[in-house]
Amino acid sequence: MGRIILLLVIAFLVYLVFRGFFKSATKPRDTPPATTEKGEDMVTCTRCGVNLPRSSATMEGDKLVCADNPKCLEVRK
């Protein structure tokens, strides 16, 4: 009976060690805060339809488009 309790205690301690290790390994990285308290305005690219932050968009005439996205293609209608 004593050996079973000892094995259960050891198994529980091993569980706690591995749980703590994997929890710290999968912790999300800190993201930089938004530029304002409300965040940044999101706009839609008129060529591909992707939503992106206003700082990542450029103006082509009077339309907002992706600035540096090589996959941004003109949508054919």
Question: What's the arrangement of secondary structure elements?
Answer:
Blueprint: H1 2-25, E1 42-44, E2 51-53, E3 57-60, E4 63-66
Antiparallel strand pairs: 1-2, 3-4
In whole angstroms, how far apart are the ends?
Answer: 76 Å
Assembly type: single chain
Q: Widest sheet: strand order?
A: 1-2
Q: Spell out the helices and strands N to C.
A: HEEEE
What is the mean pLDDT? 78
Low-confidence stretches: none
Number of strands: 4
Characterization of the model:
This protein has 77 residues and is an alpha+beta fold. It has one domain. The chain is built from 1 helix and 4 strands, in the order H-E-E-E-E. It has one helix at residues 2-25; strands at 42-44, 51-53, 57-60, 63-66. The strands form 2 sheets. Strands 1-2 form a two-stranded antiparallel sheet. A two-stranded antiparallel ribbon has the order 3-4. Strand 1 and strand 2 form a beta hairpin. The protein is rod-shaped. The relative contact order is 0.12. The mean pLDDT is 78.
